[in-house]
């Protein structure tokens, strides 16, 4: 299975994991499946459908195995899950997940709060997971997402040299790629362009996704800066749901609808049907009644004369 974009960029929808773990309500499994179906129908190529963690810690993710079993029935869809450790990775692999991502924080303070391991211990976890993957599920793709790459609400500044060194160490340990995450919403476009340029210089094609938050209103600008630095995979969450419970105040992922519109308006193909993507918000709203949904495009609508492209996969 290929994990490279079939179009100009790959939009990786993380709402069913990052979004749902960040709200107080727990979406019923049936509603999750309906939402994922609607997202897949819009042409999204990759969806992060859950997290394999203890249901005691995140009851919202207790049905991850059932959600994966349903999602992998969509032809051509890469089904991704977050795993914090070897136990979660094994569960995700045995469930049939195509791709797993590990949160490897560049901030020791955030790393201890989030996964109770130091950054170096997480590199060791990557190594153990890569060995397990080779034994039981050799086709599974491993991504190490470098959290707090642009700053940490607990620690403050995170040295850029440490961010790049950690990403390189994760790939050396067996990750197929390593991307950068603005977990705390502290990034700015100049910083994003600089760090991703360095990352690509070190890792080449193994430099992974840009995961940006819109906490301070710079999410789209940061995605554009990453694109200009050569990034072609972007995480986003429908309606901007998301955040990190261990990064106080870091609300809101980049809104998928707005990100797709920005790229399409620039002539950069995403393969996503905007009208169907906006319609998928109905399934999200049905599963989380009363939850505030964000985004600039959905209430404003498409500009007059704008023709959403229709794609064949």
Short characterization:
The protein is α/β, with parallel strands linked by helices and 313 residues long.
State the main characteristics.
alpha/beta, eight-stranded parallel beta barrel, 12 helices
Please tell me about this protein's structure.
It is a single chain. It contains twelve helices and eight strands. It is globular, with a radius of gyration of 18 Å. With 313 residues, it is α/β, with parallel strands linked by helices. The protein has helices at 15-19, 29-41, 64-71, 86-95, 108-115, 119-136, 160-172, 189-203, 219-228, 256-265, 274-287, 297-300; strands spanning 10-13, 46-51, 78-82, 99-105, 141-147, 177-181, 207-211, 233-236.
Rounded radius of gyration (Å): 18 Å
The oligomeric state of the chains shown is single chain
Biggest sheet character: 8 strands, parallel, barrel
Q: Per the principal axes of the C-alpha atoms, what is the gross shape?
A: globular
**Uncertain parts:** none
Class per helix and strand makeup? alpha/beta
Number of helices, counting only DSSP H or I runs of 4 residues or more:
12
Q: What is the tally of beta strands? A: 8
Strand order of the largest sheet: 1-2-3-4-5-6-7-8
Helix/strand order:
EHHEHEHEHHEHEHEHEHHH
Overall pLDDT metric: 93
The CA-CA distance between the termini, in Å, is 14 Å
Indicate the percent of residues in helices.
40-55%
């Amino acid at each position: 299975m290929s994990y490279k974009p079939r179009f100009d960029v790959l939009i990786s929808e993380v709402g069913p994991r990052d979004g749902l773990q960040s709200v107080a309500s727990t979406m019923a499994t049936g509603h999750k499946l309906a939402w994922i179906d609607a997202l897949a129908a819009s042409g999204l190529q990759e969806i992060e459908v859950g997290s394999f963690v203890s249901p005691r810690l995140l009851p919202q993710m207790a049905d991850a195995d059932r959600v994966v079993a349903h999602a992998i029935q969509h032809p051509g869809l890469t089904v991704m899950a977050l795993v914090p450790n070897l136990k979660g990775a094994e569960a995700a692999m045995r469930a049939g997940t195509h791709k797993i991502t590990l949160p490897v924080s560049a901030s020791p303070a955030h790393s201890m709060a989030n996964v109770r391991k130091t950054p170096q211990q997480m590199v060791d976890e990557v190594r153990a997971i890569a060995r397990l993957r080779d034994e039981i599920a050799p086709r599974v793709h491993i991504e190490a997402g470098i959290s707090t790459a642009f700053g940490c609400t607990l620690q403050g500044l995170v040295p850029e040299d440490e961010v790049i060194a950690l990403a390189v160490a994760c790939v050396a340990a067996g990750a197929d790629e390593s991307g950068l995450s603005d977990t705390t919403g502290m990034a700015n476009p100049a910083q994003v362009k600089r760090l991703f340029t360095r990352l690509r210089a070190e890792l080449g094609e193994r430099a992974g996704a840009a995961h940006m938050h819109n906490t301070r209103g710079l999410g789209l600008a940061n995605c554009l800066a990453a694109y200009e630095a050569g990034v072609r995979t972007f995480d986003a969450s429908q309606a901007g749901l998301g955040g990190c419970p261990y990064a106080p105040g870091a609300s809101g992922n980049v809104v998928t609808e707005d990100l797709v519109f920005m790229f399409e308006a620039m002539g950069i193909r995403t393969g996503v049907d905007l009208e169907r993507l906006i319609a998928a918000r109905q399934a999200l709203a049905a599963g989380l009644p009363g939850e505030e949904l964000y985004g600039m495009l959905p209430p404003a609508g498409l500009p007059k004369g704008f023709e959403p492209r229709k794609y064949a996969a």
